[in-house]
Amino acid sequence: MNKALWISAALLAAGVTVGTVHFNNASGADTATAEDKRMMTQQASGSDATHATQPVVVEFFTSQGCSSCPPADRLAGRLAEEPNLRVIERPVTYWDRLGWTDTLGKEANTTLQRAYARRTLGGRNGVYTPQAVVNGATGVVGSREADLRGLISQARFAELPQVETSDKPDGTTEVMITGAGADPANVQLVGLDRSETVRIGRGENGGRSVTYINVWKGERSLGTLAGDGASYMIAPRDRSIDGANAYAVIVREGEAGPILTGRILPAA
What we know:
With 268 residues, this protein is of the alpha+beta class. It has one domain (4-23, 52-264). It is built from four helices and 15 strands. It has helices at residues 34-43, 69-80, 107-119, 145-155, and strands spanning 4-11, 16-23, 56-61, 85-89, 122-123, 127-129, 131-134, 138-141, 162-167, 173-178, 185-199, 209-225, 229-234, 246-252, 259-264.
């Protein structure tokens, strides 16, 4: 039997609500109703199929100190295997106060999630775990697969820039972005850890081992995009973000605005 418990506290600096959403069941397994499965099938068919190649970026805000987060982390792993989905896990830090310091948590992830909430996302806004954010624009509880797939399907219909890559003999990668609008956007090189399994020592998930996919390690600016498009050269020395063994290019409006497009780069 599922029940939801919302635990919240005031974030004075951010002026928003922080919480965790709990979905408990006796088996600990992810559940989906027949209606959920029907919706998922419909969303993967019909007119949406013509937009299947449109890339969508999904960011997961989770924490090792959140007992509701492992199902969302498993969902992130499944989605990362699907074509044209760019999944990034962004572990947050605000649950560290409960007694277990998230070994992958970054304050930058907490800062971004709070900035999203201040900007007011579509869908379920706020600062909570687990949260999934689609293209930096719409939020949903990160373990609700049917709801998340619905947002992904909607996002595929947006007319957004396209990213192509070309590897050069010297190891440099050329990134070509086309179809950009007139408004400027930031082009970021994002460092990721492809996969890391952590055994959690204390807290709500104490004793569990959880695998995280495409974990955010850091990022650096490649430049500003405006007009029809641009190209950027990424040399091997640029792929030097600490702890990263994979890289993505993300095009975002402002510091915490909507994501226009993204691409996981081929391995160097």
